[in-house]
Amino acid sequence: MKDNGRQNKIESDERISDLTELRRNVSEAIRSTPVIDVHTHLFPPGFETLSLSGIDELLTYHYLIAETFRFTSVKPEHFWTMSKVEQADLVWRTLFVERTPISEAARGIITILETFGLNVSAPDLNEAREFVNERDAEAHINEVFDTARVRSVVMTNDIFDPDEMAVWDRYPDRDPRFHSSLRMDRLVNHWKAASERLERQGYLVGSDFSDNTISGIRRYLNERIERLSPFYLALSLPDSFHFPSDDHRHRIITEVVIPVACEHKLPIALMVGVRRGVNPALKAAGDGVGKSDVSSIERMCVESPDARFLATFLSRENQHELCVAARKFSNLMPFGCWWFLNNPSIVEEITTERLELLGTSFIAQHSDARILEQLIYKWQHSREVIGNCLFNSYERLLTAGRAVARNEIERDVKALFSENFRGWIGSEDTSLAKEQFISHTRSQVELG
Length: 448
Prior knowledge:
Helices cover 54% and strands 9% of the residues. The chain is an alpha/beta fold. Strands 4, 6, 7, 8, 9, 10 and 11 form a seven-stranded mixed β-sheet that branches. A three-stranded parallel β-sheet has the order 2-3-5. A two-stranded antiparallel ribbon has the order 1-12.
């Protein structure tokens, strides 16, 4: 046994100079390495209506709704009066039957259907609906996670959503693969409505930002942190965001968010660049993108060197600046290709740029999934692109005179897929108890 182990180590340490062998090793590492999906909008079944799954939810995802309106004569005001089943039927007929599903969002549906052995050219959705309806919910979750090679996901938990917080206050069953993050958009971006809600709940807050107001907000955040046990605090910001500034947003960030994050040793995830309601008639499908001020994040890093920031920008034009900023600030971690950037051509460009400027010191991707089965296509498609980028980097390194070994490839992929994130949040995500839970549930699936 010792000799076999020593031989395996020698083979693992041997550097690979053959390109075919290099490609095979990169592909294997990319395909087999589990990921921690650091930003999703997924919920386990214990969260009831917030937990989304199935073909009707997939087809009424806002990406596909926006695309459908480019072709259909149905007006938005009529579309929103239709049932979810009717909406899904319209999207399927418009984008998958009458047209070739060539967009990334549409191709994703094909990837999901193909994975489950369903007819990708069906004239209707009967088969796909029956498939999910007949499945055990827990077994389905296990299969999706296993197929996508996702170890765990981080939810987006809106602490000013009364429906979601009501679920948390009932102490729902927690699937240990679903971690929480504490989302503060309404607090920071819509202070008037947030303050009114806090006042109704008995917190001493007001529009004057007195010491009582600051204390009241902190008290609420501390209570929610205790209840949710988040991996990080999260904040989505518009493209117009500037720091510093003379407004309520600046005061909440500097006097509440950053101090609370540092007190609890939690990173702050900043998602910058969304333009809400560009086309209000489309509702959630009507948001847009704008170029943002990366120097604002730099100033936050300078003023709060003890804080740790995760950052992703929605505009393609901001990506190079973000890479350069990350080279200057060790408390800044770029992560993923967010929202409109999650397309293969753009993921390839951004990942290559980050590898060239940052080595492997970033988080390669997150799914932003809202519906369970999206994990399958978003990670399958992303893995392929990230693998190609990594192979190209190794090939250039080989040309320069330095080959890589299999264990180095495995180490790099783990860093990009999970270890950089785990180190950043200081998490023991793979504790024995959680691994035992996952092992148990998978065994139950295998036993039928």
